[in-house]
Each structure stands twice: as structure tokens, then as C-alpha cells.
Amino acid sequence: MEVDSRKCAIAVLVTAFASVPTCLLHGCKDAGKAPRGGVNSPASTIQVTSSAVETKTPPVEARVEVDPQQLKLEQLVLSKGYQEDGWQSQPGHLSGVAPHTVHGFVEVHFDQAISAWLQAQPLPKNPTAIPEGGTIVALQYGPADDAGKRAVVGARAMVRSAGASKSSTDGWFWSTMSFKSESGKMVVDRERSDGMVANSSCFACHASANDSMVFLDAQGPLPSSHVDEWKPDADLAPRVTPVPERQRIAARANADPEFLSYYDIKDEPTLPPDEFFPSQQFDHAWSGKTGGANSDQIASYITSDQCRGCHGAAELLSNTSPDMWYPEPDPEQALVDGTSTPDAKTYRNFSAHGEWSASLNALSGRDPVWHAQVDFERRLRPELADFTTDTCFSCHGPMAGRQLKIDEGEDALFTIDKFYSTAGKDSKYGALARDGVSCAVCHQIASDELGVDPKFEKLGEHYRIPSDLKTYTAMFPNPGSDTPFWGPYSDENIASAAMDRTLGRRAKYGNVVKGSAQIRESKLCGSCHTVLVPALPVGYQLPEQYKTPFEDPAVHLAFEQTTYFEWRNSAYENEIDSKRNGSITCQGCHMASHHDPKAKKNLAERIVNMESDRFPPVRGRSDASISFQKHDPIYRHVLLGINLFVFEMYEQFQQPLGVLGPDPRTPKNTLDPVLNARDWIENHAERATAEVRVTGLAEKGDQLEAEVEVTNFAGHKFPTGAGFRRAFLTFEVLDGSGKVLWASGRANSLGVILGPDGKPLESEETLDPSRSQPHHQVITAPTQVQIYEVRAQDSEGKLQTTVLGIFDEQKDNRILPLGWSSVENPKGPSRNLFAMAPHGAAADDPDYQKNSANGQDHVTYRVPLSEISGWSSVRVQLFYQTIPPYYLRDRFQTGSDKRFPVERDMRRLIHMASRLNLADTPAAGWKLGVGRPAALKKGQAPQRRLTQKDVRKKLQEHYDYLDL
Fold it and tell me: Which long-range contacts does 937-945 make (Cβ < 8 Å, 24+ apart)?
């Protein structure tokens, strides 16, 4: 959240009443003035219009519509209405009287309605007893100046608003405001103010209060020394350490001329501010009523900011060391599972929200490469533009279209204009789309139909999967308003009262099928990572009798990705054979548990960071909400592969993508979640994805013969996912001085694979399948390169990179996972092989045909000795590209001709790709090194081949909590 560093979380909004002193969490003071009405009270005389409050709005956010309730509160504070007769106040100072205070210097004011409510004896606990419009305002003050004076820098407020709650189901309108001084006058700082919504940091404490959501006590003040006398546990002691030296990587100041030249981009592209994505500070969709056709129904989907306050580790860092916050791993050990080495002097936020917020799942709705792809698909078939957007967002921003259909009916389509909406009725759908694959997606998927094997029917030369199969392409059933948030822990170990109060939803152990919770199973991931799409011929027109191409029986469906199927046909699956030894789920790698290798066990941890019995004691706290036990294991929410290319766009282009920087409330000794995620990606690319070896090297006759082995450590193909990703081998023969004498697979600074003449290989730029690189078992020329990829053709037989035009696979030689079998398992899916079998020359390679493959490929290089006189050694490295040059060329050239002028989405991709700085990353030269380079000198013994046992051992070294 990009807010002023002084704008700390108001952990407790404290109320008082006319004649009885009210206890504040960290200090007390007698109430002062006589009561008067609040913001919505009939007695209120404040009249506010939008022009009554001075604001400074960044141009990109000019479309933001500020709620009238919010405007009234802002004007109330700016006009000092809380000082008028009738308001009670706590004019004291809550400035951090002890090192464990939750917030900074504040003072609390409350109106006549709240005073009257508090005077009732006994005190009503039900918030419905609070008169409509009852208002509590907590002013936030900045640091004292030399004269000891403090200025108001912000405020938080609670207004009883039963019919218009926008942030929780508790019956309150929650507000946060930020102010700044401008020309000697205090004004609203829109750039740093959430406005009109709850900040979930409020819930982190208020949800632990009694039923009223406010902290009350009619027994008089607490002893003033109660905070000073309270001592935290040893593990709660504040940690003060140096600022980490690592910094975010900055983008290039200007476009790379070589990039522009190669992709034939005539003018250096610029991206105007009005084409920036809306800022994350406006991504709010609340848990209140939907407001649609089912207006009495609680919204099924909410944005992640509603979860952050309790399931993050940034909100309450100012008062103590929170849960889910650990010393970072020693850089030399670099273990992703969180080895504790306090001497590293820096701490990592391992909370669910902290790590998820820097994942590509969180940012999937803002992916600039994907947006350019979707825009291309829309322009290619303009009559299907809305269908295309709706279908594509069903995976990249699944909450938006789903909530829209719940509100307005199944025929409603999510359109691109809704994505950009920040005001009006569509703003919540824009917020839900921009929030990506958020908490409320995975934690609400029930077990219904997950993992169901697709049924196929033959239509001419093609197969078709019935469109009513609601299993894949994110077609899982919608949750109801009473659907729990499913978790991995048993019900007796879940304290759900706080969530019930704020979200109106209960946390429960996962939807159990056959003794296992779906939240822990790979089939949950398979619902989005098996993508079926219509294969539309060039020039396709949708017949009038059908609403979408899914309904057209003449259209067959194609697999855009099959990651889940690939895992199911591997040695790691546990759904076909539940007793399989050494199985690893998707979550086992991508949500690796936090482990202490010295103790040889998982680290138990509380996953809720909120007001609890670990904080200073205070009356009015609910016993049911404050006791949280540790869970074993905890699941990391990194959810990353090794797509460093798109990840670096998020790191380097925060403003155009609307991505906020780290929360300034977080202490400087906490590693930026983006840096934490970058470490994770780089670590996995080097240690847990694949390994290359030189397993043979000898002169045979007039040739040098070298065998190179590539081993896939992943539980699926490598590469996997989107069909345009690729990996390739660079093999070099060197002389004694290190000079390259012969090479296959060398690339230039843009990642374009070159021939011996230094020019791009024909296969890098062709649309002709016959001129692309086939799968090689033996390479004898530098123009031959082993590229691991899938290439598909359109209906005219041309190589293509569209999503809705995948007609036939011309090649698929991606390295199979360990244990892949070419023999159909009678216990398993009947058509998994159809979805993922090798295509092209790889189908004849023994490495791709074994009944229990080692997840390897072996390539033999034969180089004439006459071309490498004086050779001394060989070197080989595996490289990976998620957006290879041929893909970018397809996008940019299509976006440059008269048919598709360069507009917003394509211009954004050109702007970012041409300025992307990869020089300071392992992806320098637009290619990410996977594993470590392998080298062998002349006369040196070859490396031995890896066995399945070796692979499992290496995985266990990396994920050392696994029992393999």
C-alpha cells in the first residue's frame, strides 16, 4: 500500500462516553465535551459536495469516483467539525508510550450518537443498537517539530452505516484518509489515500474486539502502567537491523536501439500516463452486498486487501516482531525453504499475503505480455472481441467475470473497458480482474469435478472435448455466498471468529473427498493449468445460432497448456496411485513448506498476524478471537516458476503497471517481497529446474564426439505452460585460451539464436514449419540447435503464436517429466497421452519413448576435428526464454502493419520490452541460465549419467522437507 510512512495502522479505534472514562488500548483520558450528532445524524449540519474538498489527483486516476460518505468525512476532519459542541474527544497523546504500541500519535473523537449508545447500561454488544450515522474519528499526527507541535497527517473513521457497508459485513463504513500541507493549507492527498474503503489493518485489531467491533470498557480506565509492565515473549522482541543492500533493478532510461532495429520498430515508443493500468490502491472489492440482481447476497469474491491485514506480516510490524517474519537465509546456503541464519541481518516476510503479493498469480491480471496477446486476439477476430476477453480473463482475472455473472446472469461478458473502470458500478469488476488469481479464487474452489478426465469425440481428423465439461480452463463451479474459505488445517485448529465478523465467511478445513482436502491436491491447480480453447480457423465466423465458439460443433478444442496432465503422467503423481512412494504435488514445489533443516522438521507457525493474547492486555477483547495456535506445516505462497522476464517487468515498471511499492510501514530491515520473489526464481532456475552434463567426450576418427545429457527436475514438462516458451542448448568447443572454435546455439544480446555467420538462423524468423528447427538426436552443424519447445500451426499450416488458432502441433520435444510413460495406464485418464505426447521427430527418440522415462534427453554433438584444431575443452549450458524473439516478432510485426496499428496494449509491451534491463540479472542477453554450465577438458573423464535415484536425491537436497 503506497501510503505516507507516518500513516500507521490504527490498530484500535477507541470510543468513550459522556460520563464514564473509556479505556484506550495504550492509555486513558477522561471524556470532554457534550454530545452532538455525527456525519449521517439528522442533527448534522455539514453539507458537502465534491468541490468542497481540495484534492490533488494524479492524471492517471482522474476517473476515480470518491464516495459521498468519504467526502463528508474528509470535510469533517478538514473543517475540524469534531471540535464543535456535542463531540466527545480523547485529547490525550497515544504517541507510543511503550515500545510495543500498535500505532502512532492519535486522538479519538466520537459524536452524540456514539455517546448515547455508550451511556446505556448494560452496554449493548450488538452493533445494530448503534444509531445510524454514529461516527468515530481518530486523528493521526505526525512527528513533533522542534517546538513540540504535531500536525494532522491523516485520519481513520468508523461510521455506523448498516445499509451501505462497503468494506465488511459488520455494519460499519470504514474510512482512511491521508492529508498533506499545500501552500500552508491542509488538503486531501489522493495519491496516498485509499479513501472510502476499509484498510484491512483496522480489522487486524478490531476483529478481535467484542461484538461491537470497537474496544469498550465501562469499568473505568486501565492502570496507566499496564503497557510498561507488559513484557513480550522473547521471540517478540523488536528487531533492529541494517537496511538490506539489495535494491530493485531499474529499467533502461531509453529504448534499446538494437531492440528497435531488430524488431523493425521505427519510432522510440512512449507510453502516455492515461494508458497506465489503474493503481493497485483502487483494487477494492468488499464483502458486502453485491448490489446486482441478487442484491441481498453477500459477494462471492473479494479482493486480497480484505485478507491482507490478518494474513500479512507488514501491518503490525511497528509494534513487535510478527508471525511469519523470519531471518533471511544465508546467501551462501540460499535455501528457498527459509533456513534461519540470524547473522544475515535481514528478515523476510513469509506471510501468505506478503509472498503472494509479489507472485505472478497476484499480478496475472496486469501481465503486459498477456494483455498484448489478448488485444491481438481481439483485433484478429473483432466480432468475437468480448468473448475473447471474457475467456482469457477467466484464468488471468477469474473473479471479475464470475462475480459479474453472479450479479447479472450467465450471459454477461467481462469486457476490457470494465478492466480499466475505477468508478461506478463496474469498478468492482475492474478491481477483481486486476487483483489476478487472488485469495478468494483458490480458497473457494470446491472439489466438484476437479481432476475429471476429459471425454473426447472424433470429429473428422480432430478430437473435441464437450463444452459442458466444467473442469478445466477455470470452469470450476462458482461458490455460493455461504461457501467457506477452504484451508489446509483441521476445523478444531481454526479460529474463525474474526473472519466471520469482518467478511461474513467462515474458514473451514478443505472440501474433503476420499479423505483428502482439495486445497492440498494438484487437481486444484489443474483447474487453471489445463487450458482448453477453441481452435478457430483463419477467417472463422461464428454461426448466428451459437453464442460462443464453444457451442459450435464444427470447432474442435485444443490444449493451450497441459501442465496438470504432464504431472499426472509422471513419477510424482498421487491421484491415480494414492500409495505411490515419492509423490510430490504441485503445492509441494510451488508452495514449499517452511522447514528447519537443523531440527529436521517443519517450522510450526501462526498464520494469523492480528491482535491476540500475545499483545498487551486490554479489556473488551473477545476470547474467541485472540488465541491462535501454531500450524505445522505452513505453506509458502510464492507460487512462482522461473518466468524472470515478465517478473522483471513488474519490478522495473511499477507505475505503468499500477503496482505499488513495498508498504512504507514495514521496517527497513525487512526484505522487499519483490526481492524475495526474485531470489526464489533465481534459486529455482539454478538448483531445482534442470541440470546439464557432458556424459561423453572423445575423438572418434576425424570427429570430436560429445554426449550432452539434460535432466528435467520439474514435475511436468520443461518448459511447460504457455506454448511459446522454449529452452535451448548452447554447446561450444574452445581452445586453451577460451576462444570459441565451434558453437551450436549461440545467441546475441536479444536472445536471438545465431548461425556461424553471426546472423539469425532462418528458423528464428520463419512461419514455414519445414524451415524450423526439428528435434535433434545428433547435431553435426552449427546451424543445428537443440530447442525444447512446442510449435503449432494455424488452419493454413503456418507457424503461429495465437491462443485461439492452435490447429495442429508441428513439434513438441519439451523434456518429459521423470517417470513419464508411453503406455496408457488403465487406472488413469484415457486421453492424457493425446494431450501431451511428443510430436515430430521427438516421437522417435528413445528418451521420449521409454515406459518409465528418466525425464532426460541425450544429444550427441559430432564436430569435424578439422574445424577445431587445437581444441582444449567443451562447454554447454541450458537457457530458457518465456517470451522468445520469434514470439515478440509475431506481436510487434503484427502490431506494426496497417491492419493492426500500435495502440495501448501493444504500445505498452513495446515500451517495456525495449527498456527492460536484464543486464544485472541471470537472464542477461534475454536468456535465463538454467542449472549451472557444464564443462569438460580434453582427456578429462566424462560426467556420469544421472539416475532416477540421483534426481530424487537432488530434489530432496533442495526441498529438504520432502520424504523422497
Answer: 937/872, 937/873, 938/697, 938/871, 938/872, 938/873, 940/697, 942/694, 942/695, 942/696, 942/697, 942/707, 943/693, 943/694, 943/695, 943/709, 944/695, 945/693, 945/695, 945/709, 945/856
